[in-house]
Specification:
465 residues, mainly beta, 20-stranded mixed sheet, 6% helix
Length: 465
């Protein structure tokens, strides 16, 4: 079930067709049939009618979820280790990173306040991730899952929190972590483990290594942090990233994925559909630590994209259908700041906890230290970015800036800030998986992952990175 704009309407009014899509056909002319409805933003009863087929089996599903056939490849993708992150849970404990599977370590920060507690009622979507993994990665928090609260259908989590340099920054942390179950670091938000090369992905495994000898042990059942515990996170990413994932920002808009250097590619592959477009931006306070057009947060039930410059707030979110229907997320159904998405076919499982959007593939990456990184593939080229197309335009543009001050009321323009956006895309980092494939704007030096001595390029680094 979905909704399609009426392309033949010349009256200037906005009409949409409530329809039953069949994305197994690649022919857009035979994909939809249905009933015409006049609306710019679907009324809530009609939206609930449209979304219902996508959530019929939603409420009982937690971590035992199978991805749909459309994204089976992404959920079975080969992973490579790009780094390890080691955290000593003690006052002034070292936070260290390794790029050689733990043979050598560099200290990148410290724990200011350790934790000896877990939060037994983690945020709603934490129930979708497996215990012993990262369930949220953001510029202003990292959430680690210790177990599953089956009685309340919640994840049991603890968190890592960045340092805030001013009162506005401290406000932006308040709703992201439970103070008693968070280990506070001395790293600013958006940097280090909150946006640098040692930032984990959703789904990365967590181990104990209290002797710091690389003998990694899985977390015990019902784990609770202890003083002196040493956590090691294995930072794994797909060996092969897509070139891009594109969202058509309209009712029943296609979500497509396309890879670089695929000689057998038949073009973009359909992996889902937009059940409701995004029209506005909101005061998501974690965006205080992000830059415009960058990923603010990713967890098993959200992609948060910043529209504000660092030091102000403004972003919007992409939320899967089941999560959007959670009772505590009723505001998602009423607000213009959320895109709601579903699988390619109504009978397929919803997106919660599923790659490539809600596991394995995304992380915040926009640390100023990237410019000093010797390996550009994990430095400058390790960044993700978000771009748009506007109504009547064919070229991709950088994400427009829409910023608000912390604590200020929502401006009137916020609810329609994105109403001219017809497409949104995630541009993935370049990875050297196809030797004959060069990035469209290569940096001055490139150090190939397999140990090459580097390639000099006459091209300069564009601001698109």
């Amino acid at each position: 079930m979905g909704v399609l704009p009426d392309e033949n309407n010349a009256s200037g009014n906005h009409y949409y067709t409530v329809c039953a899509p069949n994305f197994r056909t690649q022919n857009p002319q035979t994909r939809y049939t249905g009933l015409l409805v006049k609306s710019r933003f679907l009324p809530l009863p009609i939206f609930l009618f449209v979304i219902a087929p996508f959530i019929s089996n939603a409420q009982a599903e937690t971590e035992d979820r199978a991805p749909s056939e459309a994204v089976a490849a992404e959920n079975q993708s080969e992973k490579i280790e790009v780094a390890r992150l080691r955290i000593e849970n003690t006052k002034d404990g070292e936070i260290s990173g390794s790029r050689d599977e733990g043979k050598t370590w560099s200290v990148i920060g410290h724990i200011a306040v350790p934790t000896i507690k877990v939060n037994p009622r983690g945020y709603n979507a934490s129930k979708y991730g497996p215990p012993g993994t990262i369930v949220a990665t953001a510029v202003n928090a990292i959430h680690l899952k210790a177990g599953q609260n089956t009685k309340e259908n919640r994840g049991i989590i603890w968190s890592l929190a960045p340092a805030a340099e001013d009162e506005a920054g401290r406000q932006s942390l308040q709703s992201e972590v439970s103070p008693g179950s968070a280990a506070y670091t001395d790293m600013p938000g958006g940097e280090g483990v909150f946006g640098g090369i040692y930032t984990p992905f959703v789904g990365n495994p967590i181990f104990l290594d209290n002797d710091k000898n690389n003998e990694l042990k899985t977390l015990p059942e019902n784990y609770v942090p202890k003083l002196g515990d040493v956590w090691t996170i294995q930072i794994l990413r797909p060996r092969r990233y897509p070139r891009e994932i594109v969202f058509e920002n309209r009712f029943a808009g296609l979500i497509t994925i396309e890879y670089r250097g695929d000689a057998d590619s038949k073009g973009p592959r359909i992996i889902g559909q937009v059940l409701r477009p995004v029209l506005g931006v909101g005061r998501f306070i974690g965006s205080y630590f992000a830059e415009t057009g960058r990923l603010r947060a990713n967890h098993n039930g959200v992609i948060d994209i910043s529209t504000s410059r660092r030091g102000e707030i403004g972003s919007f979110q992409i939320v899967p259908a089941n999560h959007a229907m959670s009772p505590e997320l009723s505001y998602v159904l009423l607000g213009a700041q959320w895109m709601v998405i579903g699988p390619a076919t109504a009978g397929d499982p919803s997106w919660e906890g599923v790659a490539p959007l809600y596991s394995d593939f995304l992380r915040p990456r926009y640390d100023k230290a990237d410019w000093e990184e010797a390996n550009d593939l994990e430095g400058i080229l390790g960044r993700f970015r978000f771009e748009i197309k506007r109504k009547g335009k064919t070229e991709w543009e950088p994400m427009p800036e829409f910023s608000m001050r912390v604590g200020a009321p929502l401006p009137k323009w916020a609810n329609s800030a994105l109403n001219q956006v017809t497409h949104l895309r995630i541009v993935f980092p370049f990875t050297w998986t196809e030797p004959e494939t060069l990035p469209s704007n290569p940096p001055i030096r490139l150090n190939i992952e397999n140990g090459g001595s580097g390639i000099k390029s006459p091209f300069s680094i564009g601001n698109s990175f």
